[in-house]
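Figure 2 data, in text form.
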Amino acid sequence: MADLGKKYCVNCLADVTNLRLRCTDCQDIELCPECFSAGAEIGNHRRWHGYQQVDGGRFTLWGPEAEGGWTSREEQSLLDAIEQYGFGNWEDMAAHVGASRTPQEVMDHYVNMYTHGNLGKACIPDSIPNRVTDHTCPSGGPLSPSLTTPLPLLDISVAEQQQLGYMPLRDDYEIEYDQDAEKLISGLSVNYDDDDVEIEMKRAHVDMYVRKLRERQRRKNVARGYGLVPAFLGRDKKEKEKTAPGGGGGGGGGAAGPGGAAVPAATAGAASSASSSTSAAPATPKRKIAKEERELRAKLRALCQFMAHREFEEFFENMHKERALRAKVRELQRYRRNGIARLDESAEYEAARHKREKRKENKSEEGKDGEFSAIENLSGFELLSDREKVLCNSLNLSPTRYLTVKTIIIKDHLQKRQGIPSKSRLPGYLDKVLKKRILSFLTESGWISRDAS
């Protein structure tokens, strides 16, 4: 019953009801922690006597400045709870500490006092020398993507999820790349009698499994970065049909969202108004891709699996800039060869060069127009091909006579192929030289076969 009242230190008369040190050799000798630490001696009591700690359970370990007023008994219950339930199970730990403490209070107190406080700084070193660091998987690296970086979830409808076998809550597929990869480690277990060879073999299996997981994650990154899932679902084609003139549907309950799900009409109206308000802002026009660049993209498509989509586009954009710079360098070199040293002189040079090229084109067109001046005004000239015009002009033969001879020769050739004897006669103005030239021309052009000629 004497322990129920207040207790005082026999040396300094301080209140020691919460915590005191009692001498086991002397009667009624109880000291405060400060006097006990200083080695106080009173009467027959000596500093080397045995002692006993008497804890009332209401003192604080962290002093009066600590938040929450945690008592020593609560601190002991907290340490017992974290040893029993493990770090992170704050609800079970709060129930173990007492009903007066919430899970949030338990988490904040342990993190602030034991992890980030003086105790954590003294017990947890900043750098652990024997910790293994993975240098082969840098964050954001194109050739070795990180396994810990979560990907954004696919915004697709329920029907499309079933089509893909996609599980959005886990961000996994029913059939993954290398579906049997887990078989490498599913049967592994660490036994106390394993020798070094067996341990190394099990480590090799784990390493192989990690490599397969990295490859699986890399393929997911490629699919997300290059938009392969919408392409597989045909969403691009559907969006083009909706945006085509007359392809969009009329009013109804709502509009189709990005995942194919229906969006309420109010939401769709708000989105349309927002888009109309922002449509005034100038959008950055996309550069038109030339035919050569499209062909080069098709050849280097295999690089897509080693580069992110952004890096792939930057690669081709830099190639386009390189070609533009090379063309500019060649142009400046051409100016230098022609004695131009300033840019303001280049405009005059280009204007003069353009005039020279225009005169050359006009001369060539005039030469072409005067090439068939002898027969271009005769009847039947428009029925001749370019090669036939050259032939008639070189033979000094009118188009009408040439067409007549051509018709007779082809008619005789067709009758001979059908076994009908030909009775047609060539005109008198056609001598042997003209006939031979015309027959060779028709043979080279494929009108008649060589055996007939």
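Caption note: Confidence is low (pLDDT under 50) at residues 140-148, 247-283.
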